[in-house]
Amino acid sequence: MLRVPLFYLLLLSVPVFGFLEESEGVIPAERTCNPEEERAAQSCKNGLTVLSATFESIQGQHESFTASDHIGINQNCKTSLTCLKTYVGCSSITQEDVDLLTKKCGYMKYLTGAFYACSQKLIARKESSPCVLNFFAGDLETEETRCSEWTSNRACLKWTIRDACGRSYWKQYKPYWHMRSGLMNCA
Prior knowledge:
T20D4.11-like domain-containing protein; signal; T20D4.11-like_dom
């Protein structure tokens, strides 16, 4: 019977690729990827496309998402982020891709998770409040229209969220409001 100390098993179970890049000083832009890594990186990019489409649909339909959607989004984000981080430098995957997906995932997980109860309360106010209607609208025609509507409705949204859900929900949501504004490329 072969006995291997636990230390060696742990050492062997750690992914080697992370250490190789750091120890060899490989810059992701200069990384040379073999064909298998390129295929895996392309698969990562396909997952990124799906999550980006989910992000776009969440903008205007997050009131229809459920707890199970949150679980799925959370798992897909973890999987895609791990994959992208692993293959930075292959198939034109950059650190900026990782950072952008991290932001999008953070926003989607918050909206479908911690903000879910407040979203449900805001639904009842959609018809009477233009800023809440704008909050749930993801289909405004142009980026300029979307940004001006989003920016001009900030104060109204703040007071509506505070009134419907409580002060703490606005405090929690405020950084995500700024994040969404940045993701929408609004100045």
